[in-house]
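Hello,

Following up on my earlier ticket. Below are the two sequence lines again, exactly as submitted.
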Amino acid sequence: MKSAFVLLTLCLTLNVASQTDADVLKTIYKQSLTNGKSYDWLNHLSNQIGSRLSGSLGAEKAVSYTKAELENLGLDRVWLQPVMVPRWIRGTKEYGYIESALGKTNTVNICALGGSIATPALGIKANVVEVKNFEELALLGKDSIQGKIVFYNRPMQADLILTYEAYGGCVNQRYKGAVEAAKYGAAGVIVRSMNLRLDDLPHTGSMTYDDLPVNKRIPSAAISTNDAELLSTMLKLNTNTKFYFKQNCKQLKDVQSYNVIGEIKGSEFPNEYILVGGHLDSWDLGDGSHDDGAGVVQSMDVLRLLKTSGIKPKRSIRVVLFMNEENGLRGGKKYAQESKQKGENHIFALESDSGGFTPRGFSFDCTDASFNQVLNWQPLFKPYLIHYFEKGGSGADVGPLKTESNVLAGLRPDSQRYFDHHHASNDTFDAINKRELELGAATMTSLVYLFDKYGVNPISNLDNIKK
Amino acid sequence: MKSAFVLLTLCLTLNVASQTDADVLKTIYKQSLTNGKSYDWLNHLSNQIGSRLSGSLGAEKAVSYTKAELENLGLDRVWLQPVMVPRWIRGTKEYGYIESALGKTNTVNICALGGSIATPALGIKANVVEVKNFEELALLGKDSIQGKIVFYNRPMQADLILTYEAYGGCVNQRYKGAVEAAKYGAAGVIVRSMNLRLDDLPHTGSMTYDDLPVNKRIPSAAISTNDAELLSTMLKLNTNTKFYFKQNCKQLKDVQSYNVIGEIKGSEFPNEYILVGGHLDSWDLGDGSHDDGAGVVQSMDVLRLLKTSGIKPKRSIRVVLFMNEENGLRGGKKYAQESKQKGENHIFALESDSGGFTPRGFSFDCTDASFNQVLNWQPLFKPYLIHYFEKGGSGADVGPLKTESNVLAGLRPDSQRYFDHHHASNDTFDAINKRELELGAATMTSLVYLFDKYGVNPISNLDNIKK
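Thanks for your patience. The regenerated structure is below:
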């Protein structure tokens, strides 16, 4: 039986060698859409394991599960890379309300931001100063802010087509809001959730205190967009509107965790590495299906789909499931650091961390020459409606692998629904469409196949480019 | 106040006249994403009115509502075009089960196909013949089929990227299944739902008896994909598996209904018409949010967005909300017939009837010369990720308007999730994303703007085409 299997694999491999690239891509997409594993894996990760905040039991289970599943694929090597990660816990559910000048209260939907300190045990109640940005905050100054709760309420810009750009234009309120407000003596910070939609869900996400002394730190939390609208309206009607919130989240000691890594050894250039990855950790409110369960299972399926499509890579292909992207990036940094120490040459690294929606293309962080090489391949993707090939960022976890000559890339799925779910309790498996997820896995596999076959070409060849 | 408004409109209009096309498209998209009405209209249509099967109270309410809303837009003319429509009613909820050879029963999720006759009052129970297509049916012949229930179980092809193509490859089972099976004396027909996903929802849709005499007609119904899998498995285990179903749907007499039409009169070429439309009727299981509430409200918003963007059309722009697309196409046919009688020159007609998902582009039914003209405009759409410009079909309702020189087109949104909802009880407002809907309305408005500005150019100008 085993020799029959070897023969079959050999036939498939020889067959692929003689196929056109268009035929190979067709095989890859067909494999993913009719015989993919990504959806089943995600079902387990989301519904059997659930949320995977760094240092949590869920994260630990996810390490064991994905390692075991990679081992089942018969890769050349599967291992864990130890990495110490921060452990922040939310504690009991947060509670908050708006108190009108007449003393009437409206409960709001609120969640602590990741990394925030707790409020005092009895909570904080204070007057509220609403601002749109740090410039307004500075103009108000200490006299207006001291002892109050700063309410950041700059909405995501609806007329930007790429929702990531709208997120980029807002997220400093969440990440830096507390440290900025603390400068003026604020008692706490409330942020409008990073969500383009008006709804009732608070969205968490990381925040920083930078090097603020512990006794200067103030608690920060997000409220839903609907509650942000309500609070803003009430403040317009009466500036004496107060806000109360209580949270008992906590930063514990760092704990041991792992990146999960699998590898197919290259047949011709084993020392040239191609990496695909997503991050295994998630926030704790939903089950992290889009962020980034989708990227994890798609990356795992890239190696599997190469095999089931009969492709025998010339270069070494690695899947890396990074730990702690959300609140520390320790996994991404550790991987890059060890890789550098070992002198590993990563010619191409591809991250999927933008949700499991219909793939539209890729964003490339590379030289013009490499980008031109990629544009040559663009027509191969047209039958799959993959059209977005732009220079830009790649992904947080692969970013530290950047060199002068390599290519980093990020999968770019349709982004319209992403921030409806991002870091909120509705980032759950039911929001995933099986075909969309599988199309993403096939799109990633196709690009990996092409980079494996042709390598990274440092020579610009503008004449061949189809514009 | 009124003169101030007129002045403002004039300024906007003059301003637009001096803008580049790229600037105008930017204004249109911004208007739709920050000040669109499509989502609010759809909320009313879906949640206040609900399903709109031809001849139903819902359809009647939808006619009144959309007419009133178009009147609120201050168009030059809004009117109803009378059209007689078939009235089919589902009656009491269908019931069906699989009975194993040992007499154990499994209830299935089943719905009558639109246009089907009822079963006898006590239902039909019979042995089952599973086939994949009409060829298999013919090979089995009368001896194997007489008195049995024919079960059509050809799944939608998962490896086709455009799900409409997968639908096209399967839908003859639903539409013609009964008339084909009746030739061989079948007692009834069960069809696997047109759904790429495995789930529990039956999907209805139209079927025909052609010219089959009334006494030869047999009832036909759809079962969910999960139930189709179960029935198929049980038949493989034991061919003596039986199926029972009961439905009391009925075709009533035709009733009076209407197409709803609104018009902005063209300033330079009032006798050249540009039409945008969707269909007002829906199936009865969900609320028809994707099929085709989305197309209705997007089409309405095209006229409104032209106004709010300060565009004064040179040609007459009509929105037509067609009645009875689903089970008769009477509205589309009536509109084309009267338009022909009046000698109206429709240079361009655009339909949105493929769901309210993220728009990807258009399919064009036109001459090569006109298609080349459109390809010249393609770069204008790139910032909005609109990339799909292909020759192909347009839409059922605008199809009858085809001439040798005009351009028909269909909006092509992302199709991956469409058949999860199509004609099923989950075609509901919660499956609509506001931004995706608004992007569709803006994309349609942009193309209407360009055809209004430049007209349909019958001269091929291949040199200018950016390939």
